Amino acid sequence: MKNIILFLILAIFTQNNYSQKNYTPSQENIKAREWFKNAKFGLFIHWGVYSILGDGEWVMNTQNIAIEEYEKLPSFFNPIDFKADQWVKMAKDAGMKYITITSRHHDGFSMYDSKITDYTIVKKTPYKKDPLKELAIACKKEGIKLFFYYSLLDWHDDNYFPRGKTGTKIPGRKQGEWKKYIAFMKGQLTELLTNYGDIAGIWFDGDWDQRVGDVHSPLTINWHYDEIYTLIHNLQPQCLIGNNRHLAPLKGEDFQMFERDLPGETKTKFGTKASELSDLPREVCGTINGNWGFNLKDRNHKSKKQLIHYLVKAAGYGSNLLLNVGPMPNGKIQPNHIKSLAEIGKWLRKNGATIYHTVQGPIASNELMVSTKKGKKIYLHLLDTKQNQYFIKGFKENIKSITFFSTGKKVDHKKSNNGLFIEVPKKDQNDIDTIIEIELK
Ligand code: GLC
How many whole angstroms from 332 Cα to the centroid of ligand 1? Predict the structure, then answer.
């Protein structure tokens, strides 16, 4: 009993230390949140020296590669085909409004010119250049916003000690000092928010590696989010902070992110329960295939239809979709991924009005349909072509007109006390998404 009380006191104490206590978002931040909510589609990029091994970004952990073995990888990493302009152009043509790229992943390798460590792309690879710098310049030119992914956990740095639950079998990890690790992260975040122009957001990941009360961690584990979030918001007030914790956001965070699952869904082990949903802007992240980092044997490339449905479903939850590609070690993105992105772009050029600048619609999402809303217009996205008739139970709003979004043709419908009945003949259906525009009075 005594232990439980002690644990609770410590948990409450550390939890308080966890967030930016008295955070009130600045005007710039509120404006940035608005922009973010309307943006709806971004490109996630997982790229690091791990891409050489073609086995995902967790390879150091999944193959238990020793620190000194892994340290050889940078010497073969020479992405001479990396062209920032091409990546940004590809994202823009896909209808994406921002890019989130890994600045340092769990392997601890900095993919930018960090001055406070030698373990960087500039100092350790034959490439010697800073791709994030080039990306920042290209993004600015094209009006695409840039976010940095930043890993809280580190399998390489001895100062990431106490260690969390991952990477425990990686040979060569030593015991350092947590305080120094926190100072290091603050130093790197300062670099990232000082040397690359306006940064739209910081995307934290890895908090789940150790939490207050975990058996492997001391009860006092403290990420010092109070200092870290304050630092970020002081350096760039508009910079949006998100943390991939799969839990309700902490004070100081500006958007809530969801990994693979849609908000409130827990189909995967990464899901965030409905009870953890907040009012902050939302972002679902997902992969174009089955991996974040480049995986040579990944054959689970999602189809055009699956990808568009992912985007539409996310929008139906009032959320952005951050769709990931894992570039190859030469700096190129896989051709089939480039093709898929172009196809989504083509679809968005026709149907973007039903996605961008919309909010979650009043018709609840299910496997058959999803709805978005903008002003007096509800966009009902029918994602299944098996039916000709749909009944929307409980639909009570006053309708001005119902038309097919693509042709403007009237949709036969009937409203009763129980709901709305609509007729969608086969010839008016679209194989990917039949969009019905319901204009309200
Ligand atoms: C998970 C993985 C990580 C990936 C992230 C993206 O947290 O650990 O490798 O970067 O998901 O959402």
Answer: 21
